[in-house]
Amino acid sequence: MAFSQTQFETLIEKIEDKLEKLAKDLVTFGNKTNGAVDHWYVPNAVAKAVVAAANKLIEFVKWILKKIAHFLEGVAAPVILFIDAVSWKGKGIHGDATTASSSTQKFNLEAPKQWKGDGADSYTNAVFPQSGAAAQVGTNANSIGDILITAGIAGVAFYGAIAAFLIQFIPAMAAAIAASATVVGAIPAAIAAMGEGVAGWIVITTAVSALLAVLGDQAKAMADLQSNANDNSGFPKGHWPVGTA
Prior knowledge:
Radius of gyration: 30 Å
Structural class: mainly alpha
Number of strands: 0
Largest sheet: none
Mean pLDDT: 80
């Protein structure tokens, strides 16, 4: 999956816009409901039932707004993960390590081509084993980049699920606002909005579980990679670099 920071930022802006609209709709819903029941011809029992249903919906939506605001605290993570992945997989780390691996292979060493004797042999024997060590660094860097990309993709998918929920839920909230003015339709509309919200929130809960599962897998992969990085068997004399003298 290709990552576009611009597209991701647009997605987050859409989420923030939808949250702002939902907060405003919530105020409108409360005001319209209170205004609709505040008439002499509305029986007290009916007014209480309508207000109770409206308050349940208001409480639920406030809970949703608070939860999503909490989720947005980590909104920078996918961007940071992708930027870091590029660093690990790019020229700076992976590229330099693989270049070092190639250039220190015995047949690529330039000095022995001009320099002969015991000193040249000692130099060659000390340097060319570094090729495997540099290759291990390059492999680890590439693996770290893959782990970061996988985690970043999971983060993007998670915020996409939040956006999809809001796009789905806001029309239900609009219907509840319209029905609240009728008094009679207020309770069914509030119940319908609650049902829509609960169904949508189940999708987000599933997305949270999926995100945690991916991050857990990547944490395990990172731990395995750390174990691999501590394996010095590919390094000359168990450590790298080794002096040529």
